[in-house]
Amino acid sequence: MTLPDSHSVVNRRTFIAAGASLATAALFARPAISRAAAPPRTLQGKVGQLFVISFAGTTASASLLAQLQKYHFGGVCLFARNCVSPAQITHLLRQIQGASSYPLLICTDQEGGEVVRIRNGAPAFPSEAYYGQIGSAARVFADATTTARDLHTLGLTLNLAPVVDVLSNPQSPIGTRSYGPNPQLDAQLSAAAVRGYQQHRLGATAKHFIGLGHTSVNSHQALPVVNRTLAQLEANDLIPFRAAIASGVSTLLVAHVSLPAIDPVHRPASLSPVIIGGVIRKHLGFNRVVMTDSLAMGAISVGTAEAAQDALAAGADLLLIASDKNIPDGAFDAAYQRVLWAVKTGRIPESRLDSAVNRILALKRAYPPAIL
Questions:
Q1: Residues with Cβ within 8 Å of residue 232, at least 6 apart in sequence
Q2: Burial, 62: exposed, middle or buried (Cβ in 10 Å; 0-12, 13-18, 19+)?
Q3: Which tens digits make up the pLDDT trace of 315-356?
Q4: CATH code, 195
Q5: Which domain holds residue 346?
Q6: Per the structure, how many domains does the chain have?
Q7: Cα distance between residue 305 and residue 255, in whole Å
Q8: Does residue 2 lie in a domain region?
Q9: Residue 335 falls within a domain, yes or no?
Q10: Residues 49-72 pLDDT 10s
Q11: pLDDT, tens digit, for every residue of 123-143?
Q12: What is the tens place of the pLDDT at every residue in 196-217?
């Protein structure tokens, strides 16, 4: 899929209309991928589409609205501090969608259990560990369906779930967020969750790629190192990821974890062309959206701006800079300017940027917002 030339006209109504038809198709099959994209015409606009950011408050501040208008960010990630009631969430999303030149991805982590961002407006279901204990794919599908319907109605478009990590180490910080230690069962339940979300107009995200279930190190604080070969991952951790991909999962989120047996440079997987380009794209054949875990986490030692450049160069599409704590506005600006500079100077080919933007726009069309 290629980007139209600089004379193409952005048609917001066409964008929304195309999305509505794709959402209908998504009720009965895998999300359709539209080729009728109306992407940004400028380099600045295309770079902005890569970023998903977080913000403080339950209303859209003047600063946030100005950022959305200036940078053309691709989406926002909601945390509990942004969500009070259905009416408030709907009003907030109308504000920010109205300020954006292009429909925004609206993301959250509505996993269940301890990771639930919206408690008033969507039911809080149990943790994935609970579903792993009862072993019912039908129950997972039913509850994911309910979550999808409620979040879509509120205006969300992408759930950063399910967690498909295999819990090989009981001391892993993933803990009850995982379905458990059995990769075959994890695969069945993960696939059911993906279908439940995506057949009901909410994109799903398989996370965290890959190996966090083996380590006791929390990537929010430091970089975990997982000494597993690709063959070992194939026999365990990759099983639920393959099931999620086979179910048509729209997005795959890459963790900040070093896999030196696969990439000896000891980079986080989120910044590694060996992991993203080699394992995800070539070995697994996944050609939908690859998203980084938040580039504001402690596992990132090079800084958020450089990490954004490295992640795009490695093959990631969506660059997440989000936290339940305040991130200075300057961090968003620095990351945006760093990526823009890298493309302008040829350090990152514009074709790499274009392929990322094409995937992001396809995701937006497959899961258009109910509120615009």
A1: none
A2: exposed
A3: 999 999 999 999 988 999 999 999 999 999 999 999 999 999
A4: 3.20.20.300
A5: 12-366
A6: 1
A7: 17
A8: no
A9: yes
A10: 999 999 999 999 999 999 999 999
A11: 989 999 999 999 999 999 999
A12: 999 999 999 999 999 999 998 7
Q: What amino acid is encoded at 18 in this protein?
A: A
**What's this model's pTM, rounded to 2 decimal places?**
0.89
Annotated active-site positions, please?
A: 220, 293
DSSP 87-154: HHHHHHHHHHHHH-SSPPEEEE---BTTB-S--SSS--PPPHHHHHHHT-HHHHHHHHHHHHHHHHHH
CA–CA separation, 109 and 118 (whole Å): 9
The string of DSSP codes covering 147-209 is: HHHHHHHHT--EE---B--B--STT-TTGGGS-BS-HHHHHHHHHHHHHHHHTTT-B-EEEEE
Q: Is residue 371, in this structure, part of any structural domain at all?
A: no
Residue 372 lies in a domain: no
**Distance separating alpha carbons of residues 92 and 86, to the nearest angstrom:** 10
Residue type, 114: E
- List C-alpha distances in Å: 275 to 113, 230, 240: 30, 10, 17
